[in-house]
Each structure stands twice: as C-alpha cells, then as structure tokens.
Amino acid sequence: xxxxxxxxxxxxxxxxxxxxxxxxxxxxxxxxxxxxxxxxxxxxxxxxxxxxxxxxxxxxxxxxxxxxxxxxxxxxxxxxxxxxxxxxxxxxxxxxxxxxxxxxxxxxxxxxxxxxxxxxxxxxxxxxxxxxxxxxxxxxxxxxxxxxxxxxxxxxxxxxxxxxxxxxxxxxxxxxxxxxxxxxxxxxxxxxxxxxxxxxxxxxxxxxxxxxxxxxxxxxxxxxxxxxxxxxxxxxxxxxxxxxxxxxxxxxxxxxxxxxxxxxxxxxxxxxxxxxxxxxxxxxxxxxxxxxxxxxxxxxxxxxxxxxxxxxxxxxxxxxxxxxxxxxxxxxxxxxxxx
Length: 339
Ligand code: DAH
Description:
Low-confidence stretches: none
Strand content: 15-25%
CATH superfamily of the largest domain: Bira Bifunctional Protein, Domain 2
Radius of gyration: 41 Å
Distance between the termini: 80 Å
Number of strands: 9
Bound molecules: 3,4-dihydroxyphenylalanine
CATH class of the largest domain: Alpha Beta
Oligomer: single chain
Number of domains: 2
CATH topology of the largest domain: BirA Bifunctional Protein, domain 2
C-alpha cells in the first residue's frame, strides 16, 4: 500500500498539462470518486489494523498533495492561455514623447484667435502670384521700388509670375471674389530677395487683416488695434499710431506698442523710446476698392498687416531670425510649455 502511495506521488510530481482541459482530465484521473486516490481509500479497509494509522496519514497527505498539484497546474494553464493573446487591457499605455509646436505657428494661432473673437475668418491665397494681385490692384505705381528685381523673386522669364512679397495680395483675391461685408484674417508666407542675416530673411510670415463694410471708420481700426495689442501683450499695453505711407491705404499709420520690457520708461530694447513698432495699417484707399469692383462711395474699410516673426520676437525675445528656419531641436524644444 505504502509502495502504491509513493508511486502515485512520483506520478503527480512529474505531471504537466498544456491546457485547462488536460488539467481537468488529470483531476478526474486522480481526485474524482473513481480516481486513483479514492481507490486507495476503498482499499484502506483491507489494511491490517496496526498499519492503519501510518497508511491513513500517508493517504491524506497524498490527497492534499494531489489537490495542490492540480490547482497549480490549472493556474499555470490559465496564465498560458491569457498570455497567448498578449492582450492586457488594464496595462497603462507606453509614454509617447510629444513634439513641440513651432513658435511661429504658436504665435500665428494666437493672432488668429484674437481676431476670430472679433468676427474675422481666415482667408488664404497663393504664394505664387501675379503682378496685379501683389502690386497693381494695390495702387503700386508701375515704377514703385517694391516691384524692383532687388526685392521681388520672379520665378520664370515671365515677369507676371512672382512670389508674393506680402499677404496684402490676399486682400485683393478676396475683394474680387466676395461681396462686402468682408472681415478676413490672412496668415501666410511671403518672400523677398534679401540677404539672410539675424535681422532679415528671404522668406518670412505675415498676417493681414481686412474689414470692409458700410461706415467703417478710423475709430474702428484704432479700437481693433487696441484690443489686439492688449490681448496679445497684456492689459497694461498702450498703443501709439504714427502717420506713415503705404500705396494701398489712405491715411496710413504704423502702430507702436509700449515697451513691456521697461514699461515704457526707455531701455536698450526699445532704443530708449519706450515704444516698439509692430505693424502697418490704414484705411483702404478708395482706388483699391474700385480696382476690385467695390463701390467706394458705399463702402469703406481698414487693413492692417504684421510680421509674425516680429511679434514672436517681442513675445519670446528670439534675437536671431535664422533660428526660425534652422530646425534646431534645442531651440524648438524651448517652446514645449508654451502650448
Ligand atoms: N503689406 C505691408 C508690408 O508688407 C504691410 C501692411 C501695411 C499691410 C499696411 C496692410 C496695411 O494691410 O494696411 O510691409
């Protein structure tokens, strides 16, 4: 009897099972009513009285051991089948390294967002333009220096195919295709034939705004500019308009904001004046409206244009324009927190 118990124990120790069904078959073989351990119990009555104590104890131990083995095999088989699908829905996701947004994109979105709150919608135009949209419709005289080969990139032998030098061309694209009221904001890349340095580049970015409706006045322009300046640079910001000249606006002005480095007292950043220039603006010249088929007796409007690089420099103090297009990851990563 004791021999038989030892044999069974050895068998149980050597057991293995590949699936839960196999474990169940083993359970039936050893632990069910007709199983091997029950068979030993049935034989127990034939054990001589003086061995009963020893054999009884051995059978009990065997039964416990068999139960433990079968349970262990069952757990093993269950974890195998879960592992087979490699799917653990409770596991947390692997961390993904986030990129950063380009500082010019960040500032462009901030500008658009401010004008959107005033009812402006985004309009875009082509970067490859013709003379009419970039210059002629905007009142540039035929011999205006801005048309000069020094400034404008002509990209074919045809002098009517050129890269736009400003986003004001989008104004005329929209004015010739839509009826007033027009309230648009036009972000885009522009090109000028300039030597690349810390302060100039052959391409840069502008945002243009145009508002045409009945009875639009200079007061509307001024209020829009003040709202923009305070939203962009903070509520303490003051603005100043200086008379200027652009062919497509009359009157024209340049807007300065109070220098937020020195609070207007004068420092090296604002060259001691307390003011920094940020954009050009004015009332749309009636000749421009007429060129685009808009009745200048019925409608008036204002326009403004600014360089995104310039605004970004003011906000984030980027000293060298070239950093914007070099894609140096160390520079770009500085804007991770600026989302
Ligand atoms: N287009 C001008 C430039 O590139 C900027 C500008 C000035 C745009 C005055 C305007 C404006 O709409 O009214 O320098």
